[in-house]
Amino acid sequence: MKLSIATASLLASAALAAEFRFTNKCDYTINLHAGGSVFVCDIPSGETRNNNCGATLGSHGLFKHTAANDVNLLEYSLTNTPGFNNVWYDVSNIPPGPGNCMSYADCKAFTGKKGYNVPMSIRPTVHNNGKNCRDLVVTSPDSPVAYLFPSDDGKMADCKIDEVFDVTFCPGGPHASSHASSHAGSHAGAYPGSHPGSYPSSYASTVAELECTDPDVIPDGQVGPWQQCGGKGYSGSSTCTDGYACQGVNEWFSLCHPLPPKEGELATWAQCGGKGYTGITKCQARDECWTKDEHFSQCIPASKKST
């Protein structure tokens, strides 16, 4: 049987489409919804659903937990044209109806909402290079990895269009979620659990994978990126390595977070060049301007410099 060009093209596009595989490590059911708050499926605690949980991917779309609009969104866009066969993806924590707010705190104050209801991680399993195609780990409402306000830049990542993503809700386990779901009672993003001085062992390693910005050698007495630096019962060093500052997650746990860029410098993962680009081109000292192609360059951790 002969296929028409249109049919063959459609089948080829389908074969190239990305796939999202969802795993629920929360202690409650994930009510997966798509754009327009269309119900997709329920994912019970401890279970995994492959093949987009049965949803058909459009050229643009999103996934979220619950039908509410003040929740974090996994957003994607598929580009399948000659020379541009990519899937773009990001996590948005922007509160709904933000206006022109210029920070997460401003958006939250303006809207009275938070734009976040469950910790999540997105890991490319096929083309992950730690640069443009990389892990996104968002475990708090003001996570620096997520879009936090409308003009926030540098948060989108992209992989080849045949990428397979492992999406994990509550990547640090059920204690990390602290019942962020609307089905539970405590505050979203509270972390870790209720036991003094304890936290899921997977948390530090999960967050460390966020940007993999660890320098080759951490000086004695200093704490590396995304590692614990404080909290009740903690007895280690509270001095973060250069470019990082110790910030509290809650009374039990603090992490070494990257410092914001100085004036005239770009944040990690922000665009720094490319054909037609007219913005700032200077990356922070710990980063380098990596050229993906003639159209796009971005600031990446210097430790990821290609050899």
Automatic annotation (TrEMBL):
Which keywords does the record carry? Signal
GO BP, sorted A to Z: carbohydrate metabolic process
GO CC terms: extracellular region
Give the highest taxon in the source lineage: Eukaryota
GO MF terms listed in the record are: cellulose binding
Q: Which residues form the signal peptide?
A: 1-17
Q: Which Pfam families match?
A: CBM_1
Q: What positions does the domain CBM1 occupy?
A: 221-257, 264-300
Q: What is this protein called?
A: CBM1 domain-containing protein
